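Quick illustration, no need to memorize.
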Amino acid sequence: MRSGFLRITLLTLAVLVSGAAIAVSADQPDQKAHQKRGSMAAKSVAPGQLKKFHVTAYDGKIAPSTLRVQRGDKVQITFVSKDATYSIKFPDFDISNKVSPEKPAVVELTPTTAGTFEFRCSKSVSFKRWSKNGTLVVN
């Protein structure tokens, strides 16, 4: 029993560390582009850029719950769970997936229209079904 708990704990930590590394590396190009905006020699961001996000599900919640992209960007969202199996649904994009502490889920999409699109991360506990909405904002 104890070795199983230790194995799950170590696997969860490994997933969180790798997810954090992905999130940090995804943010770095955006920070450089943001710093260059004030410069006359700054280049505009090319449409169709790959945007990577890392979303963590825990205690029936998700973080971050709002993701912002530009129309035409390729979006890759890695979902990880700290505590249970969650269903992930993007109804406007006809996407559904599952994430568990042992297995992260990767969702890829390319929004072609601007707007606000809801996604849901749900977990079943006994007879209750907990849901937390997230929002994908496309400019």
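The CA atoms of residues 34 and 46 lie 14 Å apart.
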